[in-house]
């Protein structure tokens, strides 16, 4: 599913146009670019969340494909799973003393990579934070110098889901919300955006957490449907949980009767939207997030100034857009302005 022609990297609006990459590096995984001592501070290390979730598989592919296209040397490490906070921190710690000039980090929590990153920052190396924001207070305490944050406006994504639900159900209908890990900033932002959009027009009968996991969401949704036979819609903070809810709805014999909307836009979620399982997904583009992370490192290591925040694109995908989204996957199916494009040309 990741074998699409990488030439779009040179032609889409998000991509680096051919011949204008800011750096000309050699290698693709580990070794250094050419230098007087055989090493270079221009190499990139990336530490991301667990590859047990397709979202982060696509992010990894965006990082690697962009690095290959732009001749950037990159090494990617991932947590064992989406809850492996200690293991992820250990992987970053192992990379800190190596020859990397830029670190792309996608922390599992707002704080689990802070201690390791303090060494990166002290060494004067670039930190590019993607997807999951590092806790601002923890970063300040550790004196972290974070060059830029690249990610989704999660409240806006949740808001798009809420607007969709309002269009699908009657006012006053019962709605349930299933979030990720309790206390997670990303999950909370999506839920806040959803709740702000639906306001008092629906009755939120239950809000629970399923740790981003499909099977846990299936169990939670099964219990919610059994206890609340009039529930008309579910919002899930990610696609994996959304697909678990879809299975619970199917098991209850209520497919088509209960609206289910989630956030991510993973390929299996898009297929489910097309098939009439998920009602909609708010597509993020983890491939684009990974790509922007590499491009940010290119700008930084060539001496450019990065914006403090770079918003990655989102789009609501219903059955009307599913084919278009699948045809373009994993890239965005609608163009968007890449703020790094001009910086890469300098």
Automatic annotation (TrEMBL):
- The transmembrane residues are none
Under the heading Pfam families, the entry gives: Peripla_BP_4 (PF13407)
PROSITE patterns per UniProt: PROKAR_LIPOPROTEIN (PS51257)
Q: Where in the cell is it found?
A: Cell envelope
Q: Per the database record, which ranges form the Periplasmic binding protein domain? A: 45-297
Which segment of the chain is annotated as a signal peptide? 1-33
| Domain of life the protein comes from | Bacteria
Recorded GO molecular functions are:
carbohydrate binding
Gene Ontology cellular-component annotations: cell envelope
Listed A to Z, the keywords are:
Signal
| This protein's record includes keyword Signal | yes
Q: What is this protein called?
A: Allose-binding protein
| Organism listed in the record | Okibacterium fritillariae
